[in-house]
Amino acid sequence: MNQETKQVQVLWGIAEQFVYSGEIRNAILCLEAIVQSPISLFITDEAKTRIRLTEILLKYTQNHTEAKLHIDMASTLLDQVPSEKDLKLQVYYFYSIIYERLNNKSGLKQVLGLGLELSKDFDFHWYQFFLLKMAKVCGIDESDMVQATEYLQLGIETTKKVDSLPFQILFNLSCLQLNLHANDLESCVHYMNEAQELLFHFRSECRKSVRRGSFSKNTRKDHINSPFKSPSSKLLNEKTQTLMMLEIQYHILIIIYNIQKADYKDIFNTLENLQKLVNSLANAESDLVKFTWLPKTHIYLCTYLLSIYCNKPIGNYETISGFIEKGVKLTSDLYKQEGNKRYIIFGGDQFVSSLIRYRFKFHENQIYINLCRSNLSTAIKGIAQCHKLCRKYPKYLDPIQAGTTLNILLGLYSYLTGNTEYAKQHLSSAFLKSDENSEVALIAMIHKSLIHLSCNEPGPVFEFVNAFSERLRAHRSSLIRASLLFIEARLSHIQKKNDEAKEKIKECLAIANGTVVHNQLASVALNFLGMMTMLDGVYNERAETILKSALVISYKSEDLYNQLQSQKLLSELRINTGDTQAAYNELYLSKITTVLSKNITEAKRKKWNQLVQDYILDPENSLSPSKKRKLETIDDRSSKVRKL
Do 60 and 27 form a contact (C-beta atoms < 8 A)? Predict the structure, then answer.
């Protein structure tokens, strides 16, 4: 070893000490001193130094230009040494990160193709990594399902040849994720069963390894935590962590599958198992779960969000509020710490964007809860926070998707505060902004139809049902199918077809109570059925039983509006029959009415209430013309000052 090589290795060691102690600037200066040194370096030493510089710059800074400059130089140097394939693969790896962050899809596909070609007969581990990345780019980013499936099937075949259980599981889970993304639920079943069986075998293998305390000689193929080799002393622990991460990904995908099917029967057992697995992540050695190239905190946020979606249909609002509070706190803390840039792929813009999207989702779900509970002041404040996120981070939140959500929320808020015209305008805007066949567009029109019915305007509702009934009946969401049946029952009642209306309501309840267990829809449907039974004038006891059931369900979900309707109908029924409990219902009716009236008055006093009108006038900036003129005047003055 010559003197120059010794000096380089000493400087490498010093740089790593600086990284370990958090002195990133000094680490970068130390490595730059090597490549800028007048002494003659070996090609591989300079290439390794530039690769390490690229990694540090991507992890801890936003300086993509400098990172690309170093990786370009490393690539050029390694072209002179064709035998250094492992270093060349590392170069392709970091190129993929840079192109992904810069949203350069063509560059990303090109470099992944080069990585696949080089690693195919050289390194099994790298080959699987590039296959997975290429499948993600083709399937999720470009929606080319055929090409993505080909890459994943190729991965499954190669992992079977070398008998690598972790990678077999990973590729099956990736196929499952791809089909969930494409909403192909039938194809999902095969990959779920495959992954479940393979996980069982890998679990057994891990137990044997723990008992033996060691691995077989051929261990590299079982280690999928990183494209880089890990010390053999950590292999046992990493194999166990790999199993845990595969189990977590499997449970997450199973829950998403059940949510998409609207099948909530066994979902809570899966959710409980997922929460246990996620809690065990606290004992993992690193903040970075390298197997998925995600921070552990990303998995926590995903679990919180799934817990919200699972509890939402049954109106378990206390539990939901707890998860929302945890999620908002964690996103806030992470955003403040984001300057540390500790993560590889989810560092920089991508990590920030995931945090912003999570935060938006947590706020959105909290707003729905506040609307149901008639906490209107808190609801409109939450809508204003979501709107602020949209304006502050336009490149992180899809303007169409986020705008559609805001319109739906403002539409519901407007209706509850008595502004039915604004409510209709917001919901129409939500429908027009999104694809008319998308779930969110159909939900917007269902809400709008119910508002029309409450205003005795059945005409637009008939038009909507005639145009969309076939699509709604065949929709995968049981909630949408049940909502259609409820609307059709209301229309049948208007047409004096009471028997038909009752049959449709019973069908709606069979779905709402059986598959979706959606308390809010069930209580609305029961109130309507109770009202129709009252009109028959014969089954008063039956009407009372139905309305009591509606009241119980609405209390469970803390839905003041359905409580009000149930109490109103019960009071009317008992007055007609001379029941002494009528006064009791009247008392509660008065209390609920007072609370709702107070909440509406308080909400209208809030400064955020202006957003209801402003967002219709100017959805991009949500400013009234007078406010826009003021801001334009200020901008003109500012530009003049800058010129001076």
Answer: no
Q: How many other CB atoms sit within 10 Å of the CB of residue 514?
A: 11
Q: Which residues pair with 289 in a beta bridge?
A: 294
pLDDT in tens, 364-401: 999 988 888 888 888 888 999 899 888 888 877 888 88
Amino acid at residue number 113: G
Annotate 102-128 with b (16+ C-beta within 10 A) or e (fewer): eeeeeebbebbebbbebbeeebbbbbb
What phi, psi does 288 have (nearest 5°)? -100, 120
Contact 605, 583 (CB under 8 A): no
Tokens of 188: 């999902």
Q: Which amino acid is at 588?
A: Y
Q: What is the dihedral of CA 617, 618, 624, 625, to 10 degrees?
A: -90
pLDDT band at 236 (very low <50, low <70, confident <90, very high): low
Structure tokens at 560: 């003041």
Report helix, strand or coil for 494.
Answer: helix
C-alpha 579/C-alpha 188 separation (Å) is 56
User: Can you give the pLDDT at residue 617?
Assistant: 59
Residues making up the chain, counted from first to last: 644
CA torsion 236-239-241-246 (nearest 10°) is: -170
| Distance from C-alpha of 182 to C-alpha of 152, rounded to nearest angstrom | 15
Decide: 93 and 227 in contact? Cβ < 8 Å: yes
Instruction: Provide the phi-psi class of 559: left if phi over 0, else alpha when psi is between -120 and 50, else beta.
Output: beta
Q: Is 164 exposed, middle or buried (0-12, 13-18, 19+ CB in 10 A)?
A: buried
